Amino acid sequence: MSNDLESTVQQVCEAQGKDRTRMLDIVREVQRRLGCVPGAAMDRIAAAVGAHRNEVESVVTFYAFLSEEPTGEVVIRVCDDIVDRHAGALRVLQVLGDELGIAPGQTTPDGKIALRTTPCIGMSDQAPSALVNDVVVTYLSPDKARRIARALKKDPNPAELVTKIGDGNNAHELVGSMVYNNVRRAGEVLLGDHHANEGLRKALAMTPAEVIRDVKTARLRGRGGAGFPTGMKWDFTRSSPGEHRCVLCNADEGEPGTFKDRVLLTERPDLLFEGMTIAAYAVGADLGVLYLRAEYAYLYNFLQHVLQARREAGLLGRGVSDKQGFDFDIRIQLGAGAYVCGEETSLISSCEGLRGDPKTRPPFPANRGYLGYPTTVNNVETLCCVPPILDRGPGWFSGIGSEGSPGTKLLSICGDCRRPGVYEVPFGMSLREVLDLCAADDPAAVQMGGPSGTLVAPGDFARAICYDDLATGGSVMVFGAQRNLLEVVHYFLEFFIEESCGYCTPCRVGNVLLQRRLEKIMAGRGEPGDLPFLQRLGATMRATARCGLGQTSPNPVLTAMEHFPDLFGPRLHEPADRFEPSFDLAAALREAETVAGRSSVHGH
Amino acid sequence: MTDETITFTIDGAQVQARPGQTILEAADEAGIYIPRLCYAEGLTPHGSCRVCTVKVNGRFQTACTQPAADGAVVENDTDELNDMRRDLVDMLFVDGNHFCSFCEASGECELQATAYRLGITAPKYQFLWPRRELDCSHPEVFIDRNRCILCGRCVQASRDVDGKCVFEFAGRGPEKRLIVNAEANLADTDLSELDKAAEICPVGAIVIKRRAYRTPVGQRKYDKVPIGSDVERKRRDA
Which terminus of chain B, N or C, has less C-beta within 10 A? Predict the structure, then answer.
């Protein structure tokens, strides 16, 4: 038994060149082979790579998909995001638990099947959904869940669960997934036709400075949500000295309700890699990394195949497209279940084999990033925009969309609408038009930009989707009139609590305090003073949090207060007596009563 | 030489800095106190507590990590910032189990002293009463995680000053906790009570045994002067 562990760890570490910056790959593989990363494995990993046991433990305990304790041969992770809940995810979870005889968080007594919940896995358009190891299971129902549980009990082999294959490259032999693309509207930049590698060809015929100039002229802005001007970021990276420079592609797509990069990775991987190559040429990079969220591991083999084909065609490697002196290659770094790793410096930390903590800034990645080298981190969609800009010209690109937001935007629309899926629309389109496109019959509220965005009321549906008005990285969650919006906000806080890295005080503690106060209101004990309390706490978090997660986590509750005041007002009453309504005396006494072995005279 | 000097203002007062200095370092030298908890001289600042948050040209930054820039307008001792600092200190109090009345660090605790300096007598938030572990295995040093504010000083000191790696952090979010370089016990690590990591804790989370309660109440470090007095003394002397 311990020989198995020792030889497994030895093999895995050697396959990664005993490189401690590949810690995440090492522990992922040990997890895959042993079902967990126990203490004994941590000791041996540390010894093999020249690290300390507690450093390995630090990494293993950070990521949701890694575990010190045994999990199972098969791990079922049911997505319990709010959109999935609205589609029936909790009933599916119940059925799975009943069939397997375990509760979420447990493993069957024979050690074979573990049941877990997990936040958004990028399948909100085909909810309820789940991961069974790396296999994605979509459009779940109680019946389907029952069949899956029984099939796994007979034969714990997730591959057997895929009986119906999806569309496009989901049917590729290296993908073989039941996922559907659900592309509802293709636009002229990304999902329509494109001339393969023409952008790269034209870029290589210019100087790097001219390439950056074109991207600046196009006024391309980051499509991950932050909207930073891409040309400017590349400029900073290019002008920073370093032995190497790096292009990192952010395919973490963790913002709940976002699944547009999933479609780009499936249907336009060559376009993405072409964009990364142009970026590398522009900034003078030789190292490229695609950071792929663990939930999209089902695309890993396919993406590696696309990279290999590009290498064989001379489009990656030494002397890209016969351009002397331009060497560039891309490796894929798989994540392990951490939303915060979508933050660019956390992403870098993760690529370096560390906990996914954001880094201290300054310095910024353009100066000191991956392994200390100047680095540009760009979203999948942003990089996919680059080849068309070089191919058809920046003027063509900036002529689409609006003045402040040129180009098109991929929207991933989900929730209470009849046509959820991916839409490529010009920037500047109103939310109202988009809601008509996706056939949202009676929208009462829309969460724009995921939990870190804003909850929009019908009075604002005429507003435009663009960086300066209703901004989004793609996520558009529609909520019908039957939905409890306080429940939605409560879930979003649960999400941030689960995903916070814990580094800084305001996020680690503040989210819990916001949630407790919301629970007080939801339990019927709200007071007028709760609103200024939430306002002030939210303001402190926004001002003092160390990264974007804590800076935006108060948004759901604060935008709900701003745009849906009637959710709160009628629930707030001055307390009849002078006691603090958030203090539950009976609950506070329970532990003491247990220890003393008798009931208190108070609180009953 | 004068060309290299950076000049900026803190609450209207002129402050000089050398290139590469942070706002906090420059302020300390100028005798202006910016409250802080996770910052410690000799370690690399990393902005985990956020208490030293100031406003630089209208934007919130942590003074300990932000380089001093020529012409910058920095706000420090304002109601807005001090209110936020009180919120952050309150959060730290309710996030752990801080019983000052019997804590070995009381009177020399930087969290307690910062709270008093900010005028806090009790936190405004509900107590979260987390379950935190003790580790008294080591003959000379114990860990009481009830008091840990996750400042990270011990992790850094052990690694960068002592050349060991006794401490690290495990978990994330509210579950984030201090771990040691062993299966469980501090006794199984190479920590010595002479290590920098053993004395650098700002609160009573890492405590050297058999030294508690020696100094009578009234004669302890922060009984005599408020925290920050050593910094402000420079201004009076200047």
Answer: N
